[in-house]
Amino acid sequence: MTIKNSFSSDFSHLVEQARNTPKPLFSGAWSAIELQPDVFVPQSFTIGVVVQPLNDRLYFKLLDNFKKFECLYEERLSLNELREFFTYAEETLRLASQQRISIPEVGFDTASLHLSAPLFTSGDDIEMTVERLFSEVVVMAHRSQKKRTEFISIDTMQARSMVNDELKRIAGMDFEHIVNQSTYGSLVEEDGVKHFLDLNLITNRACGSVTSAFYKSPQTVELNLLKSSRDLTTYSRIHHMDSIGLFLLTPEEGTMGPKEFSKIEDMIDQYEWKLEQDGFRVVSMSSPAALATEIYDWAKPTLR
Prior knowledge:
This protein is of the alpha+beta class. It has 2 domains: 26-137, no CATH class; 156-302, Rossmann fold (3-Layer(aba) Sandwich). It has 8 helices and 11 strands. Strands 1, 2, 3, 4 and 5 form a 5-stranded antiparallel sheet that branches. It has a 4-stranded mixed sheet with strand order 8-9-10-11, sandwiched between helices. The termini are far apart. The relative contact order is 0.11.
C-alpha cells in the first residue's frame, strides 16, 4: 500500500465527519470613544464603544457615571462640564446612527472627543457584543459586586410571536380578522413600484403594530419606534384608517440596571406623548398577555 492510499484509508472517516465552522451572525468594526477633558494635557480616557456591523447602522454605549473623574481632577473639572461632553457625544452618535454614517466618517466638533481607529469584530448578537466590548475597555465603568442575570434582547418578530400566542387565546375566531396573515408585512404599490410597510395588525378600519422595545440600548428602541410609526402613518393615510395602534413589548424592571431601564422608559414616554398628539394609541407593557388584551380591546370595535 502506498503512503497516499494509507493516509486516505486512515483519515477518510474523519473527513466524512467534518463539518463547516459556523459563521458569526454579523461582522463589522468597533472603535473606542475617547475623551480628553483638558486639550492642553495629553491624557485621554475611554468612555464608551461604537460597534458597526457591515452595511448597518452604528450601535454605541457611553459611560453614565462620572464619579471617578472627580477623584482624578478634583477642582480642575466640574461635573457639569463632563455632562456637556457626554451629552454632546450621545447626540452626535445618535444622529450618526440614524443616518448610517460609517465609523471613520463620524466627526466631533471638539478636540476633546474622538474615536479610535476601527478594529474588526464579529459575533452572534450585536447588543451583547457592545456590552462585552464596553466591559472590557471602559475601565472607569462601575463594577457591580453582584453578577446580574444576563439580559437577552427580544426582537420584533419574537415579540409578535409571543403576543400572537396570547391573542389567539383571548380573541378566538376574531384573531384571523386582526392579525395580518402575511409575516412579511404589507406591500403597497404606487406607479408600478412596490413599497414594503412592516405592520402586523390590520382590520377593516384600523392598523397597528406590535413592536419590540425589549432592548438595553435606547438607540435601538428609538429606531424601532421611528420605523414602526412611519410605516403605520403611511399605511393609514393610503387606506384611510380610523385608528392607529402601536403596542410595545418592554423589558421588566430589574432585568437591567436602574439607569439603563430609566433611559428606556424615558425614551418610550417621549415618543408616546408625541405619537398620541398625532392620533396614535400607544400602549407599552412587559406582559405579552396584557398587551394582547389591550390589542383586542382596541381592535374589536373596528372588526365590522
